[in-house]
Amino acid sequence: MLPDLLQRLPSAEAEKKIDIALALAAIDARNTRVASTVGPILVAALRPQTTETKPDEAVLKAIAAIGEPVVDEIFKALEAADGIGALNADNRKALFMALQRLGRQAYSEANIYLLRKYQQKERYRDVQEAAGKALAAVLRPER
Quick check: pTM over 0.90? Predict the structure, then answer.
């Protein structure tokens, strides 16, 4: 079943890609092939279509289940969303929420530096707060 879904993913319609990615993450999120294939799709799914669009809870949970392999993809998306406008701000907020869910799995000195940099230059208060929560979660010691 897993190989079949992985084969169908590249040719699937955009709407179905997210569903297939969520199914694959639910089946085996820690599988390196699954993580590398669905991670970019799930991170891209956090990009809002409108300012009314909120991050999908299932996508955030799937990203958290994948863990560390998706962190670089999140930081690439943060860099891409580093422009002005409400959609970019909402995208950054969703990406910070994903990093918060990942917590310590997203820890590295470079990531801490980037999170602090994004938080300091953020213009939107709610996004700045989301960056702060992500930073706190990433810095929180493991139990």
Answer: yes
